[in-house]
């Protein structure tokens, strides 16, 4: 298990949705851009939290899906996704 923070920066996000196919926690938001929706993920275990800060979406997870998040970040052409391990 790894504790990590996923930040989705709305400003650079361009609604290309390459992230969605890498990690199902990324979903389309009402504004046509991406957001993080743990409720939309069937394997979400309820240990994470999601908050908004200055328009960005920041989610903390404690599970073994950091690789999926990193793949989504790597696939994002505008570098709108940042994945960082955090100390508990
Ligand atoms: S891949 Fe990047 S730019 Fe495209 S929707 Fe996802 S976060 Fe936004």
UniProtKB/TrEMBL annotation:
Annotated region described as Disordered, given as residue ranges: 31-50
Superkingdom of source: Archaea
Name the UniProt record assigns to this protein: Ferredoxin
């Amino acid at each position: 298990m790894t504790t990590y923070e996923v930040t989705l920066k709305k400003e650079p996000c361009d609604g290309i949705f390459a992230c969605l196919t890498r990690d199902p926690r990324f979903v389309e938001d009402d504004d046509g851009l991406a957001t993080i929706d743990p409720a939309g993920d069937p394997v979400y275990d309820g240990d994470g939290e999601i908050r908004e800060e200055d328009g960005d979406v920041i989610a903390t997870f404690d599970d073994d899906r950091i690789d999926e998040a990193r793949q989504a970040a790597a696939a994002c052409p505008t570098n709108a996704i940042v994945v960082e391990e955090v100390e508990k």
